[in-house]
Specification:
Helix Hairpins, 2 domains, 60% helix, elongated, ATP_synth_F1_gsu, cell membrane, hydrogen ion transport, membrane, CF(1)
């Protein structure tokens, strides 16, 4: 049986660990609520932009805008949204492994794809495995603004418009609930399945100078807004996953403390019983 001092030390260290994970759980819970609120507030804006773009595209005289037309795929870009820190359960591993499987299934060489990585974990994962990482952004705040990802979003959209690659996909964790996040693949470019987000009667718009001229400006902004919306969704998923992981860690630590306390009490009782037996035996010998 383990030494009483060793058991006591393990109990103390495990209690300290549970205090840290409990604190991290509470912090993540607070961040998760705010991140979820940000993601939900962004949805009406996204739907309105989609309605406007769909209305303009349906009435545009020039249907050959490069962002609206599919072309032979020679090269594909993938924008993966991870986190800067771990301790979030399977939040990062699930999406990184899914993208890695996709790359190996769809492409025969690294010349056929490029990766844009958001988050230190995603960047380090693919760089370490020598995948073709074209650009990355790390150190994003817990509640990011569009300016935080503007550079990489515009670069990803701009390189598609320039013909550097022929498709752009996003991989991120979609927030379903606090305990559930789904790995999601979303095609950003080309925009081939554009339809109004709102059901019912579509609004009528008058354009100045023309619908085609507005599309030239609005389509890149729409694609960039899709990336930012996915980032907000991913942040809500990240904080929820970390909160759940820390709750599980806290519960496990409490279970360990309870089991160790039982072992400690039994060992202590056995030691006391042994001491009493020795004392009684010594007294009997003196008689």
């Amino acid at each position: 049986m383990a030494n009483l001092r060793e058991i006591k030390t393990r109990i103390t260290s495990t209690k300290k660990t549970s205090q840290m994970t409990k604190a991290m759980q509470m912090v993540s819970a607070s961040k998760s609520k705010r991140a979820e609120s940000n993601a939900k507030k962004y949805v009406p804006y996204m739907e309105k932009v989609q309605d406007v773009v769909a209305a303009i595209a349906s009435g545009a005289t020039d249907a050959s805008h490069p962002m609206l037309v599919s072309r032979p795929v020679k090269k594909t870009a993938y924008l993966v949204i991870g986190s800067d820190r771990g301790l979030a359960g399977a939040y990062n591993s699930s999406i990184l492994r899914q993208l890695e499987r996709t790359l190996k299934e769809r492409h025969k060489s690294q010349d056929e794809y490029v990766i844009f990585a958001v988050g230190r974990v995603a960047r380090d994962y693919f760089v370490k495995r020598e995948f073709n990482v074209l650009d990355s952004v790390v150190g994003l705040p817990d509640q990011p603004t569009f300016s935080d990802v503007k550079q990489i979003a515009r670069k990803a959209v701009g390189m598609f418009a320039d013909g550097t690659y022929d498709e752009l996909y996003m991989y991120y964790n979609h927030f379903v609930s606090v305990i559930s996040q789904e790995v999601t693949e979303k095609k950003v470019l080309p925009i081939t399945d554009l339809a109004p987000a709102s059901e019912g009667v579509s609004a009528s718009y008058e354009f100045e100078p023309s619908g085609d001229a507005i599309l030239e400006v609005l389509l890149p902004q729409y694609a960039e807004s899709l990336i930012y919306g996915a980032l907000l969704d991913g942040k809500a998923s990240e904080h929820a996953a970390r909160m759940t992981a820390m709750k599980t860690a806290t519960d496990n630590a409490n279970d360990i403390v309870r089991d160790l306390s039982l072992v400690y009490n039994r060992a202590r009782q056995a030691a006391i019983t042994q001491e009493i037996t020795e004392i009684v035996g010594g007294a009997a010998a003196l008689e």
